[in-house]
Hints:
By secondary structure, chain B is of the alpha/beta class. In chain B, about 30% of the residues lie in helices and about 30% in strands. The model of chain B has no long low-confidence stretch (mean pLDDT about 90). In chain C, about 30% of the residues lie in helices and about 25% in strands. Chain C contains 13 helices and 18 strands. Chains in contact: A-B, A-C.
Amino acid sequence: MFKRKHLLGIEGLTRDEIDHILDTAQSMVEVSKRSVKKVPALRGKTVVNLFFEPSTRTRISFELAAKRLSADLINFSGSSSSLVKGESFRDTVLNLEAMHPDIFVVRHSQAGSAYYLTTFSKSSVVNAGDGAHEHPTQALLDALTIRQHKGELDNLKITIVGDILHSRVARSNIFLLSQYKTKIVLSGPPPLIPPEFSDMGVEIEYDLDKAVEGSDVVMMLRIQRERQTGSYFPSLREYRKFYQLTKKRLARADKDAIVMHPGPINRGIELMKDIADSDKSVILNQVSNGIAVRMAVLYLISGGSHEFNN
Amino acid sequence: MKVKARVMEQRKIASTLKRLAMEVIERNRELENVAIVGIRTRGVIIGERILKLIEKLEGAKLDFGILDITLYRDDLSTIGPNPIVKGTEIDFDVTGRDIILVDDVLFSGRTVRAALDSIVDFGRPKTIQLLVLIDRGHRELPIQADYIGKTLPTSKREIVEVRLKEIDGSDEVLIVEEEGF
Amino acid sequence: MNLIIKNGRVIDPSQNLDEELDILIENGKVAKIGKKLNAPDFKEVDAKGLFVFPGFIDMHTHLREPGYEYKEDIKTGTEAAAAGGITSVACMANTNPINDNEGVTSFIIERAKDVAKVNVFPIGAVSKRMQGEELVEMGYIAEAGAVGFSDDGYPVRSSLVLRRALEYQRMIDKIIIEHAEDLELSGDGVANESPLTYKLGLKGIPSASETAIIARDIEILRQVGGRIHFAHLSSKWSVELIENAKINNLNVTAEVTPHHLLLNEQFVETFSPLYKMKPPLRSEEDRVSLVEGLKKGIIDAIATDHAPHTQDEKELEFGFAPFGVIGLETVVGLIFDRLVMSGVISVFRFAELLSKNPAKILGLESKGSLEIGKDGDITIIDPEKKVVIDPDKFKSKAKNSPFIGWEVKGWPVYTIVGGEIVFNGVDN
């Protein structure tokens, strides 16, 4: 049972809690297929999308999720880089909190910001991505998508490819998939996958050909071109040569393998069109499932008296 | 929990459901326009039985749907921390249809209120009729059933427990009381 | 100032003393030390059951004045020191303006005469504007009263400037204090680079950021001579480098902060900026090596790196908050309780680390000892006094302590500077 007031990360959730969220999300899928795509479950609740880092898709996904549950939603965007000089994060939140919202959905460039918010706010908090730390709803929607295609989350080999170092998506996915009987393999340029990651119970294979061998799921991460100033790899040309998922490489995976990507795709870098648009790609299912998962999360953290711990 | 009385057993339930099925047939001349929608969890089982009885009696194939009213409840913040959503399955168009809404027990009327809200989100039925196995009184909303298996006077402290073979292993209706009162 | 301290357990490593004795201070200096001393006209401190130490010296403090008086100033910083049992502080040069000329040094000294509760010894910058390019006028600054030189906050960035400073020491024998950090390797890191911080998604500062500069400095010193004191060691490998240098008879010393001795990186899991400082809190293995280094004599001093920031500055997201924590008011009690009373180090070693050695490194000849004729600076600890660390009671303007809420047994109750009681904590 998922009985928490906040969803700050996947780390620390039990398999049972994850299953409960995914089961609820699966039930939510149907709501988005109706002609009236709305249920009154969160009528009268106010959700604040607190985005200190631009992200149109995650924001829209949370917005639709809240609205399909009949919650009222407002969007607040701040620039996290200017916060040092302007109004602090804390003051911003306290100001908004004075308007009595119920849930903050927070996206921020700094790891730990969602947790930090809970130390001075009374509202429920959903982490929509904090720095390189966690992006729990992304991992949950990925899990829902895998479950829909593979039937279960156990007995799978999952290969995660790309910039693991800066990726909150990778971390949350590792935490989630580790709760199941999975083999997780990371692949990408060595400076972007320090060996310390193996402490998280995953394998590291810098040769992508070997990494995808027999994989059931190949999860491609976005290369953040703006983050590549720290000379993590010499050039995109070289990245493409060694870490692009090509048809030839994908042929080494299981014949029913699916290809995932959290978006937005850098076409021609992580993936070529022939894979992104192929029947192996479940990228658009991920997007649809994003709404269902976020509905489930908003719904579940609203349930009950909130006397339970976080 | 203490069982105070066993008010219906398997044969009684079977004959009651048969009577209810006949009443539905009698009141709905355009039987092919009727669709049965069960409210989770036990309303679904009773609805399926009614559906089979009507099929047997009239040879008619009716549409059947399942309603999960969890997302329509008005007590999200008081039912405790673990609301479980199992999902709604209505894969036919409800507009213009005569909907027979089925539940096991009619009590405060709040579940039915939620179910009515839910159904109208799927379209605009011609009529919605309510069928329940037990009406135990104590209504908090102006809602009445169209088809009642048994009217059961109860006190508010008592709990009416409908047990069905498919879920509970046997068919019976019990009145139980929480101990410690 | 005249004072007599009766019946305390006097600890003085410089005289190999650990005995119940009386101390007579006359005109601010230690005049007599012995049993059953009498001085009827002198103010008397009853130290029965208490520990009496040569005054403690914090050789690494940021008093923030001039320029950042909103964080701390010489008055509040030294009040905090007094309340924490510290009788002397050496204050770092990263003020505004930077203490890279004798004008700023003189200002600090003059200001301290007017407002300071304890002795203040300025540290000058090594390079002009701390840019690491040009040596400061070490002679003028030393004459004005600086006791050492440091670009603390930054390393001495140019290897050549460091070489020149060491060479210049032959003329101006003042310690060079190195903040050992390769700024490129640190990058925009905010916490230790380790499996934990990779997991938390916090940008890491590798240990090599510290050791690379220590190794560089040692090699330059091996070539040209001189002496260097390494500030705030944080890693196991740094301890090893210092140990090797000492084995090779190189003139290096090192200090460690109370937070690196008592905390490890696990605290960062709370994402609280109260655990954000440079160098970062490192692994438990590193922490244990630092404690070992203290025991074995590889590390010479405990210093606070007292770095006051306002609550507004510090109450930010972990990544945005400034580095640094305060320590003047808690170092003595914490180390006494957690390391001395628990049997990790002796009371002698404790007095060496906080008094004798800092005095020696900074060249404070009249301090760090209770020999007759030395300054009457004394710290008295009540080993039974229980304290819960409470920021509301801090004398410092800042509250950014990582030890808030810690329960400590054993706390300074008298701070005496030149025979004058500047802090009396018996009655509260």
